[in-house]
Write a structure and sequence with these properties.
The complex is a heterodimer of chains A (212) and B (271).
Chain A: H1 5-43, H2 49-61, H3 65-75, H4 82-107, H5 111-119, H6 124-154, H7 166-177, H8 181-210
Helix pairs in contact in A: 1-4, 1-6, 1-7, 1-8, 2-4, 3-4, 4-6, 5-6, 6-8, 7-8
Chain B: E1 19-28, E2 31-41, E3 46-50, H1 57-64, E4 72-77, E5 80-81, E6 84-87, E7 90-93, H2 96-103, E8 106-109, H3 121-133, H4 137-150, H5 166-179, E9 184-188, H6 196-212, E10 216-220, H7 224-230, E11 233-238, E12 241-246, H8 248-253, H9 258-270
Parallel strand pairs in B: 3-10, 3-11, 8-9, 9-10
Antiparallel strand pairs in B: 1-2, 1-4, 4-5, 6-7, 11-12
The chains are: A mainly alpha (212), B alpha/beta (271).
Amino acid sequence: MAWDWEFTGRIIPDLLSGLVVTVQATVLGYALALVLGLAVALVRRVPVVGPLLHAVMEFIRCTPLLVQLVFVFTLAPGGISAFTIGFLVLGVHYAAYTAEVYRSGIEGVPPGQWEASRALSLPAHRTWGAVVLPQAVRRVIPALGNYLIAMFKDTPLLFAITVGELMYQASRIGGVYFRYLEAMTLVGLFFLLVSVPSAVLIRRLERRYAAV
Amino acid sequence: MPQSDLLPGGAPGAGGPLIRFDGVVKRFGANTVLDELDFTVDAGERVTLIGPSGSGKTTILRLLMTLEKVTGGVIWVNGEPLSHMRGKGGLVRAGEKHQREVRKRIGMVFQQFNLFPNMTVRQNVTEGPIHSLGVSRDEANQRAEELLDLVGLGEKIDAHPTRLSGGQQQRVAIARALAMRPEILLLDEVTSALDPELVSGVLDVLRGIAESTDITMLCVTHEMHFARDVSHRVLMFDQGKIVEEGPPEQIFGDPREERTRTFLHAVLDHG
C-alpha cells in the first residue's frame, strides 16, 4: 500500500478535531487526578476511613483502565455523555496513582519540619498548607508530570466507549476508506508531537524544583 | 545588647517553680529513657543538661515541647499540667488543644535548625506569631526585623534559608523561636550540626540573649565552656537519672561523682 499525500491532506482536519478531544479529555482527567489524588492521600491518614479508601484505590490500580471504562459506560445512567464518563474514569483511575505519589511526597518531608511546626504551635491548616504540602508537592512534581504523559497516551482507550478522540477518528476514517496507513501514522505522529514537548517541559520543571 | 524590651522575660513565678517534672517516666518500647525523674526549674533560671548520648537529656526537651508523650508522671509548667489537664476526679491526658495553649509559652531551637525551606527568612520568623499567636502582620514583620538584627542577619531577611550557612540558619532559628515571646527557651544541641568555625557566632548570640534577658533556658549541649559561662545550674544525667547537680563552678571545677568526672574528662579531652 503506497502512501497517498492527497488523502493525507484530506483527513488531517478530522484527525485534528480528534486531537482536540484527546487533549481536552487529558486536561480534565489530569486535573481531576491531581485534586482527587491529593484528597485521597490526605484522607488515607484518617483511621478506619483511610484503610477502606486504600482498599478501593488498590482495586482501581489492579484492574485495567479499559475494563473500568467499558464497565462504567455500560452501567452509567443515560444523559451522561461518553466524553464525561471518559475523563471521569481516567481521572479516578489516575488518582489512584497520584495519591501514592503524594503520599510518598508527604512521607518524604523530614520529621523536623513537623516538629518545628509543632514547636511554633501552628494550627493544622498552616502545618499542612504552608509547611508540609508545599514541600511534599515540590518533590513529586516530576513523578506527577510523568503521569500526565502516561494518561495522555492512555486516551486512545476512550475509543472503546465511542468518545470522538484521535484514535476514534483514525479508526473511523480507516473504516470508511479502507485505508489505515495514513490515519494511523498521523495518530502516532500527533501523539509524538504532544508528548515530546511535554516531556521536555516536565524535565525543565524537574530541574527547577530540584534546587530545594 | 540592651534589648530588654525586645526580648521576652521569664514568667512572674506563681510562687512555685516554672517547670516541674514529677516522677516522669519515658520509655521507648522496652527501653527506659527517663526513670522517675523529678526536678524543677525556676523562672529566669538557665539550666544546662549534660551527660553521655542516650542519657535522656534531649528527651526532656522534647517532652517539654510535647514532641513526645510521657509514659508516666506529670510535667508542670507554671502550675499548669503540660502533659495532662484537669479533668473530673484528677488529671487526665491532655488533648491537642490544651497542649497547644501551654506550649505557646515554650520555644525550641533544634540541632538541625528545621527552618522551613519553602519560606523566606522573614516568613519563617513571622509564621508562628501571625498564625499561632494572632499577631498582626505589621507587628510580626517589625519584630522579625528587630530580632534578625539582634542575631546579626538583618540583611538576609528576604533570603531563602537554603542560601544561608549552617550558622546563619541556626541564628534565624533562634530568632524564629524568640519571635513567639516564649517564657522558656529550649536549646537542643544547637551547635552540634555546625562546622567548628560557625559555632562561636551562634553561641555569642545565645550569650547575648542570656545576658540581656531573664528568659528561662534549658540547654542540652556539649559546649562545656558555654555551659559554664551562661548557666546558673548544671544537671549531669546518666541512664535517665540525674547523677549530680550544682552550679557550673562546682560541676566543672569540683565534680563529686565519679561518673561526672569520667564524662567531663572524656568531653574536655576532645574539646
